[in-house]
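#struct-queue
[09:14] JT: dropping the first one here, sequence first, then the structure tokens:
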Amino acid sequence: MKTLSIVTLWWNHLDLLPDYEKVIDASCANEVIIIDNGSEPPFECDAFKVIRNTTNRGFSRACNQGLRAATSDVVLFLNNDIKPTTDRNWGEELLDKIGQGILVGAQMRSDAHTAVDGILISYIDGWCLAGMKDDLIELGGWDESYLEPSYYGDNDLCFRATEKGFGLMRVDLPIHHMGNTTSKIFDLNKVRVANYAKFAASVRKARRNK
């Protein structure tokens, strides 16, 4: 029986905790690791393992921090800005789909923003993305060189996975992503442009090397 660690980053927004806890209650997770990225006041919840950063280390670095700390077979990166759509238990359903060489998540995307030279590149949206811990470590985790808030980090992780022969799979989970915690401290247009250029360069390099 596979075990599940959930890794969630937290920066302020403690008002999201009640809905988040409802989602977690239906997960059958063996552990929940909260990476507190310098919240003020600090994040506190006795039910979860909390790793406190004194400053905001950003999405990719904190995800990798949680990945290293996880003790289960499977690691799920799950945003905090979520709420349940039903009270259905979903953890075993997720674990049933996961095995070596596959990444699983709640939302598969191949929008126009994924295209490189006119070719759409499917990926699992990073707000809910899971894989075997050993696989994620082998892939190198999240690329910390992307500008925060790490737009295209999930594209990059999934692309590297598929280049190694991994499969990507969507699982219909009873979780709604609200998408409302992106910080206003970033120049988001600048981040998107710079991170897309980096992602596209990686894709083109991989294509040239085939």
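[09:21] JT: and here's the second one, same format:
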Amino acid sequence: MNDSLLEIIVEKEHSTGNNLSKENASYYLINLERKFEHEMGKLEENPKLHNLYKHGVQVEEDSVNICKKLSMSEEDTKFISFAARMHDIGKLYIPREILNQERKLTEGEWKLVRQHPGWSRGILIPFFGIGEIALYHHEDYDGSGYLEGRKGDCIPLGSRIIRVLDSYNAMTEWRVYQKTKTKEEAIQEIVDGKGTKYDPEIVDCFVEIMQ
């Protein structure tokens, strides 16, 4: 576990009046990652299931590049990259038969799936800022997203970064319910959503990095 990240978490927790020790933070994070990797490993056994863990790692790696492009601090980069890796951990609460659907989800199933950002926050909430980033990663820049319909700068920057990268990786990865897009097609769809789904500045950084 990255000591710098733990120190940042502990320092921020103390600043809010929570007496969280480095040992307790380390224990929680290590067990959280082990649980996540264990559960995601189960998904790898079925080739028809999207590998959530692999998806999280890819979004994490891409988020670091975006943060560097934005000249963000090491502290903020660590927070956003960890949130990026864990943003979909709430999907562990979704029944496997729903995640494995080869047909279009029913309204009730889709409503359940849309709750996963809130569940991700519930798991990550002991750590200052990380849970909030995960909570808002499906909010759209124009306010049309979920869960709260936040818009613009009311959405945490980390969430706006993950929104772009999550979409791109979802489009280019194989999934049972959609046709996989090429890199060029996915980039164009991100560009088409500039200012509506996605933060224009993040889109510009993303396109520069991908090109």
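[09:30] RK: nice, looked through the second one.
[09:31] RK: The longest helix spans residues 22-44.
[09:31] JT: good to know. The chain has one domain: 3-210.
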